[in-house]
Amino acid sequence: MITRTSLGRATRKAFVPQCSKRPSDCRTLASAKANSYNYETGEINGIKYASRDLPGPTTQLAVVAKAGTRFQLYPGFAEGLEKFAFKSTTKRSSLRITREAELLGGELFAYHSRENLVVGAKFLREDLPYFTELLAEIISTTRYSRHELHEEVIRVIKLGQKSILGNTGDMCLNSAHAVAFHRGLGAPLHPTSSVPITQYLHEQDLANFSRAAYAKPNFAVVANGVSHDEMSKWVGEFFNDSPPAPPKDVPSIQSKPSRYYGGEERIAHDGGNNMILGFPGSGAYTGGHYKPEIAVLSSLLGGQSYIKWSPGFSLLARATRGQTQAHVSTRNISYSDAGLLTISMAGNARHIREASEAVVEILKAISGGDIAKDDIRKAIANAKFRTLEAGQNIGTGLELTGAGLVQSGKASQLDGIAEAIEGVTEDAVKKAAGSLLEGKATVSTVGDLFVLPFAEEIGLNV
After folding, report:
1. Exposed, middle or buried: residue 112 (CB in 10 Å: 0-12, 13-18, 19+)?
2. What are the tens digits of pLDDT across the range 117-127?
């Protein structure tokens, strides 16, 4: 049976007493407060890292790279890089990686968002050295072989393309991003069925993209459930093979600053009805486009209830009580330099039409000051809770923190976000609602277009 001491080239060093002294070439960027959910951050050998020493027997570790669909060189590259995670490397076969992870009781995962690619693992706390070495190996020595690309990766991507055709919710959200941002953030999260994926995905091009994505300036290592000293020691030891900068013979990973456009798109579909009303939202806290009043406005509009046996305090929950066959929810989707405030509606086409008209009327009422102070207080409390809950969530916190370190050199710290939301005033919320109505909206509609309204029919400018 394979033992822990035989699993990795240098991993066996973990199981003998080690000096707890911090490496001399490691510098700490920020320290977390005692009993806080903030991350402690640092940098060693050009690699940014962050950790939270949460109590418990397990650890979650991830590499967060600037390689989401916004930054991909060609369609499908972010998806391809995600699917190649934990495939064969120059040191281990994919079968060996699978068997070793199973023997240690670990869990491996990889996913991508519009800005980030996340490759990570969950495991018992004492196995940190092995999984740190594994992730370092995955990002630096993966073999992008032709047979794995065509026999496994592309096959899985094509299956995903078919599933998107029947998911009207995802289709509507992709449409909203495309209308709002065009290129960059407007790229679909997954390749659509109309994308000739084999025309763009080639093993050598994908390997070159990985060399740029996994260069030291373009990724960060984040962990929950590990001490900062242990984190700095193993990151410094295992991540030295990553290039200090993207190779000159590889196109750089970059994207123009996001610009909001707005507009309207309508897609006929007989598989369901969805409608999204989008507006310029708040960017991430670590960027320069954070607007806490948008978080409060999102909670104030709401639509969904968080209290059992109650429709909820939010204005849309009360206004759409009669539209029982329409599900309404409000959400701010934040990115490094932009955000998209979305009011999503799904269900019966006639009820969606009525709910969309209520949305505009409520925005007018808020901007005009026709809103109870008690509702504002509830919205602030709810916005604070929802934001802190998301940041406290281990998976969400990993990506937010890693993205902040890569994009701006700052981790997403919960204390600062909470203070910003608590400082939102009633006037700021009114002003935010008014600006949404004055500017161009993003309206994406999928389903029965005979019933579902145009933007101008409900009073929105596009």
Report:
1. buried
2. 999 999 999 99
Whether the pLDDT of residue 279 is over 90: the answer is yes
Q: Virtual CA dihedral for 178, 184, 185, 189, nearest 10 degrees?
A: 80
Strand pairing report for 40-44 and 26-30: antiparallel
**Contact between 330 and 342 (Cβ < 8 Å):** yes
Looking at the DSSP bridge assignments, the partners of residue 341 are 279, 332
* pLDDT band at residue 2 using 50, 70 and 90 as cut-offs: low
Output the six-digit token pair for 26: 């490691």
Write the pLDDT tens digit of every residue in 396-453.
Answer: 889 989 999 998 888 877 778 889 999 999 999 999 999 999 999 999 999 999 999 9
Q: Which residues contact 246 (CB under 8 A, 6 or more apart)?
A: 211, 212, 215, 217, 218, 252, 253
Q: Is 159 helix (H, G, I), strand (E, B) or coil?
A: helix
Task: Return left, alpha or beta for 411; rule: phi > 0 is left, psi -120 to 50 is alpha, else beta.
Answer: beta
Q: Which of 135, 156, 173 is nearest to 79 (CA)?
A: 156
Distances (CA, A) of 374 to 269, 358, 420, 455: 41, 21, 19, 31
Structure tokens at 159: 């299956």
106 versus 24: the higher-pLDDT residue is 106
Q: Which two tokens stand for residue 270?
A: 């007989």
pLDDT score of 22: 43
Task: Report which residue type is found at 234.
Answer: W
Helices (H) and strands (E) in the chain, counts: 16, 12
In sequence order, what E strands does 54-124 have?
A: 58-65, 107-112, 117-124
CB 429 within 8 A of CB 296: yes
Note whether 273 and 438 are within 8 A (CB).
no
Which structure tokens are listed for 52? 């939270």
Distance (Å, rounded) from C-alpha 352 to C-alpha 328? 9
The values of phi and psi at residue 61, to 5°, are -125, 140
The label of the residue with tokens 């064969």 reads 88
259's tokens: 């610009």
Other beta carbons within 10 Å of 107: 13
Task: Determine contact, residues 15/4, Cβ cutoff 8 Å.
Answer: yes
pLDDT of 67 reads 95
What would you report as the CA-atom Rg of the chain, rounded to the nearest whole angstrom?
A: 23
Task: Write out pLDDT tens, residues 287-318.
Answer: 788 999 999 999 999 998 888 888 788 999 99
CA terminus-to-terminus distance, the chain:
65
Contact, 45 vs 255, CB < 8 A? no
Contact 276, 442 (CB under 8 A): yes
15 pLDDT more than 60: no
Please name the residue that has the structure tokens 């740029």: 212
